[in-house]
Hints:
Elements: E1 3-7, H1 23-33, E2 37-41, H2 43-50, H3 56-74, E3 78-82, H4 89-98, E4 103-108, H5 118-125, E5 133-136, H6 141-145, E6 153-156, E7 178-183, E8 189-191, E9 194-196, H7 198-208, E10 214-217, H8 227-233, E11 237-241, H9 256-262, E12 266-270, E13 285-287, H10 290-302, H11 304-321, H12 324-335
Parallel strand pairs: 1-2, 1-3, 3-4, 4-5, 5-6, 7-10, 7-11, 11-12, 12-13
Antiparallel strand pairs: 8-9
Amino acid sequence: MKTILHIGQFNQLRLKRCFMxxxxxxxxxxxxxxxxxxxxYNDRDFLRYFSFAGYKKMGLRRLNxxxxxxxxxxxxxxxxLGHADTIYPKTLAQIRMLLPKIRILxxxxxxxxxxxxxxxxERISSKLDVVDITLVTTGDVALLKxxxxxxxxxxxxxxxxxxxxxTLNMFEVKNPPxxxxxxxxxxxxxxxxxxxxxxxxxxxxxxxxxxxxxxFAGIDSYSRLNxxxxxxxxxxxxxxxxxxxxxxxxxxxxxxxxxxMGNGLxxxxxxxxxFQTLFSSDEMVFYDNPDDLCxxxxxxxxxxxxxxxxxxxxxxxxxxxFNEKVIARYMTDLLFFTFDAKKYxxxxxx
Length: 350
């Protein structure tokens, strides 16, 4: 049995994001269910613990020293880093020196367009010389290749679902309380060819199809949901709107796609994101522009049986091909030299 140290955001002290970003727990679940000994290391919670009287610089130093000693204690075969920006590259280099056989993978679930998120690109790039593998939730080959270095591996990371977390089968519900849901923050989103606020998106749809019942949270004056309240919100609707900050980057989506598809809602996606390469029109609804989106929302709101059929097809496919065990196996195949691209239905390494 191999031991994997998973350093990431498990959101235990910071309740504000509790249950919203579930990628780290899902991946750990998948690793455990695949037979690995997994040690979860919440770097941000440790940083708060080590930052005496709020002195973050001292906390960072103590955290990184603790990680080195922790690795010497538990002797992991691999380290997986999920947005572990508190961990210095020199710390990982020292761990590699002390444990020469260790393998290290970093994953990132934010966008990587230079004009949009240069800070995220810098955070990923800072560890490229000390990790073996870099995976990002973007399928654009040109964008991924900016992280390619001699001897390392760079690839696409799908957003995983987990039926112990996404527990709903909304495709079984003919008449849910609302037609469609959209949970987001107030950050601007790409809608058609414009960047607008989520409130403007909702207002546009409501004006075009006023009879459609909307559920939304985190938008304008509507409170952002956390914890179980966020999870349960998907029980309110039969359809889900998946509009990310950018919708014209190949296979980029926030993890909202896993929440919608995994819970059995009918998912609406901008066609420019390219997910029709993974899903058919019998599994997901693709729209060309905002007006086309409104037409399709109205149609499926008025045709529940068709909505249920497509949502079921999409949910079952997502649960089969993008579940936590499949995505965790993809990672360990790369880590432990057993990778075969033919085992996966999605683009893998570049």
